[in-house]
Design goal:
heterotrimer; A mainly alpha (146); B mainly alpha (501); C mainly alpha (117); A: mainly alpha; B: 501 residues; two-stranded antiparallel ribbon
Chain lengths: 146, 501, 117
């Protein structure tokens, strides 16, 4: 993949941090404002894609990026399933939002028990997953060969 | 009664599907191990839950998150038990088969197993869900996994078939979602039981019939009913053999026929006395499928394509049996779901074995394989007998019940049509057996040797199950199929049981 | 009533594009139109005249036990799920289209003659 010119690279470096921060904000406040795991995950993926397009890559870097996103996607999924199963084993019901998790007062940031953790898991999974889709569709030669 | 193990039907294959990409970076055979453990565990859990159901006599339920009526429900009654057993048995045999079958594909093995476990998770989740939107989400999960699996070899014809299948299947999914939106606008609830009760009190307006029609079209696309059958032949023909077995034997029936039955019989409560138009529609389209699939299968030269057209014909049988509408019709339809899943699974696995060893699928080039591949040929021959309705195999009893149901409803022409096309099925399957497996005296047999042990074991397992179901048909009827048919017959009891229990 | 008819019209336009266009990418775009139409219809089902968006803000609403006039939030949650499903379907369709382009060097559907019937 070829990179872009110097102006684009500098601006992308500055902007990617802000986009990443905004995506994290939407993920973490998923139980208070609209958005949640999926929308925030798409923004995180957008930040990663912005950097990847601006700087370009060679084959070894592409391979590292692909393995990185694949591992994070699986970890996000496993974490979500583990959260659901905590309710199953510790308390009485699958996905139960009580007991082990910290419930707190309503409308605070640290509250709602299971829901912010589930949002984080989904955000990680969607972000890494969309970045892997971008790598595969961008005709990355490593992904096609494997 | 509370069913403690119901979430495991979804959690076990999903955990397997998430762990496979992670762990197979360490050692490539981990994928086989995890997939094998997951499908074996699912088989054990499904048999165990069925035994709990039989011991208790009352359907099992599970409310996710502990929230009663307004939450998501999981429901396990006799119909669910039958479907879940069919899914997990065929999935286990396909998994066993694909351990050695994947050696001929250069794409990574872990990709296959991830997608396969997602397919199984989607199908199981669909079977046990008691909530309408949950059903839609699981239908879409299993459909997307199947599109990717059909394109697995990434050669030209496979990708083309997968694209065609995908566009048609997803338009069907969109129509289904449209129907669900209409239903929600009508009843403002999505739990199947409360939906059923709301629909009874609200009465039958034209809007209600429009909703039924939209949902029926959505399911018809998913199950390959006429006139939406065009994707079946190409998709089953190009997919890898264990995936063809899963698609043809399990997927079109569970997402199409079971989804439609749950909605139509248990939620809408259609019955022959009140809405004969629906049943006549099913009989009409089913008969067209049966005739068209059977006749088109005659002219095929390729082994797997013939089996794919035969699947269209067998779906026609099931629809005709459902359309008859009395107890024997339902028993025949459910028995045929079981018999066809086992029989067609055996035939597709045998075809994959032949393709892997002899290198070709054209019927003109395969001669006299019985001497060199004894297990495969006898598996194919016994599977063909079951599909054609020869006693004492399972297929004979299913066709017998369908004909009994047709005669009991005084539709003699339907019974005659069913018997006639049973003979047609026998003839085209025998054509394959004669040309491919038994050689004439002066023709040299094609060079091949027998397939590896796990593939043979999977085929032998399916054939053994066909024999068991056939010989012990009275036991299967009493314990498995009879209660399931009663669930369909007394459709509206579903709501009463779920909300009361 | 007008928004619902517009959604059905959009669905029919998307269906027309899927059925009659020959370029693979145009077929994918037609399918995206169908997806948009159905999601929009579903989200519009929950509308009530003169109601607030279903978000609880401010401590007083929590104390009063949420006795306000809210738009129905269930279709919004369901449409979120349906959008995710549509996204993954579009990604898969595009990757299949790319693979077909690599093999045949064209996006034209009538060039694919290998599979008949």
């Amino acid at each position: 993949m070829r990179g872009m010119s110097l102006i684009v690279q500098v601006m992308a470096g500055l902007l990617a941090g802000m986009v990443f921060l905004y995506g994290g904000y939407i993920i973490l406040h998923g139980h208070l404002t609209p958005g949640g795991g999926f929308a925030g995950g798409v923004l995180v993926a957008a930040a990663l894609i912005l950097l990847s397009l601006a700087y370009g890559s060679v084959e070894q870097v592409e391979k590292r990026r692909y393995i990185f996103s694949s591992v994070f996607e699986s970890l996000g999924g496993v974490f979500f399933l583990a959260l659901a199963l905590v309710g199953y084993f510790a308390a009485d019901c699958f996905f139960r939002n009580t007991g082990v998790f910290y419930l707190g007062k309503p409308l605070q940031l640290v509250s709602g028990g299971l829901i912010p953790l589930a949002n984080i898991a989904i955000g990680v999974k969607v972000g890494a997953g969309l970045f892997a889709v971008f790598l595969a569709l961008g005709a990355s030669r490593f992904v096609m060969k494997e | 009664m509370e069913g403690k193990f119901l979430p495991l039907f979804i959690a076990v294959p999903l955990a397997g599907a998430f762990l496979v990409p992670l762990l197979s970076k360490l050692w490539s055979r981990f994928a086989d191990l995890i997939a094998g453990i997951a499908s074996a565990a699912l088989l054990v859990i499904s048999v165990y839950t069925w035994l709990i159901l039989k011991a208790g006599g009352v359907p099992l339920h599970y409310w996710v998150g502990g929230w009663k009526v307004i939450g998501i429900a999981m429901w396990f009654d006799a119909l669910t038990a039958l479907i879940v057993l069919v899914i997990n048995i065929v999935a286990f045999c396909a998994m066993l088969y694909s351990i050695r079958y994947l050696d001929r594909y250069t794409t990574g093995r872990w990709k296959f197993y991830t997608l396969f476990l997602l397919l199984v998770a989607g199908l199981n989740g669909l079977a046990i869900s008691g909530d309408l939107f949950n059903m839609f989400v699981f239908i879409e999960i299993s459909a997307i996994a199947s599109y990717a699996l059909v394109a697995f070899g990434t050669e030209e014809e496979e990708v083309e078939a997968a694209f065609k299948y995908m566009v048609l299947g997803e338009v069907g999914g969109a129509v289904l979602l449209f129907g669900i939106a209409l239903l929600y606008a009508h009843a403002s609830t999505l739990n199947l039981a409360t939906l059923s009760q709301t629909l009874i009190t609200n009465g039958k307006t034209p809007f209600y019939w429009f909703t039924i029609a939209t949902l029926l079209i959505g399911f018809a696309i998913k199950m390959g009913m006429e006139p939406f059958h065009a994707w079946l032949a190409d998709a089953h023909f190009s997919a890898p053999a264990p995936i063809s077995a899963m698609l043809s034997g399990v997927f079109i029936k569970v997402t199409g026929v079971y989804g439609m039955c749950r909605l139509m019989f248990n939620v809408f409560g259609v019955s022959r006395a009140q809405t004969p138009a629906f049943f006549n529609l099913l009989i009409a389209f089913g008969a067209v499928s049966m005739v068209l699939g059977g006749l088109l299968a005659y002219s095929q030269n390729d082994y797997k394509r013939l089996l794919a057209y035969s699947s269209i014909s067998q779906i026609g049988y099931i629809l005709v049996a459902l359309g008859i509408g009395n107890y024997w019709g339902f028993v025949g339809a459910l028995f045929h779901i079981l018999a066809h899943a086992l029989g067609k699974g055996t035939l597709f696995l045998a075809s994959g074995s032949v393709e892997m060893q002899a290198g070709t699928r054209e019927l003109d080039h395969l001669k006299g394989l019985e001497r060199s591949m004894p297990f495969t040929s006898w598996a194919h021959i016994l599977g063909s007998f079951s599909m054609a309705g020869v006693p004492p195999f399972a297929g004979f009893f299913s066709k017998l019940f369908i004909i009994i149901g047709a005669i009991a409803a005084r539709m003699y022409w339907l019974a005659f049509l069913a018997a006639l096309f049973s003979a047609v099925t026998l003839s085209y399957l025998t054509k394959v057996v004669n040309t491919a497996f038994f050689a004439k005296k002066n023709e040299a047999p094609t060079k091949a040797k027998e397939s590896p042990a796990t593939m043979v074991l999977a085929m032998v397992l399916l054939v053994a199950l066909i024999l068991v179901v056939g010989i012990g048909f009275q036991g299967v009827l009493d314990h498995l199929i009879g209660p399931a048919a009663k669930v369909l017959l007394n459709g509206l009891d579903y709501a009463r049981l779920m909300l009361g229990g | 009533m007008i928004p619902y008819i517009a959604c059905v019209l959009l669905f029919l336009i998307g269906l027309y594009v899927v059925v009659s266009k020959r370029n693979l990418i145009k077929i994918v775009i037609g399918f995206c139109l169908i997806e948009y139409a159905v999601n929009l219809f579903f989200a519009l089902v929950g509308f009530k005249k003169g109601a607030l968006p279903p978000i609880i803000t401010g401590a007083d609403q929590v104390r009063l036990g949420v006795a306000r006039n809210f738009v129905d939030p269930i279709p919004q949650a369901l449409v979120l799920t349906a959008i995710v499903i549509g996204l993954s379907t579009t990604a898969l369709m595009l990757s299949l289209a790319l693979r077909l382009y690599e093999k045949h060097k064209t996006f034209d559907v009538s060039e694919f003659r290998k599979l008949k019937g």
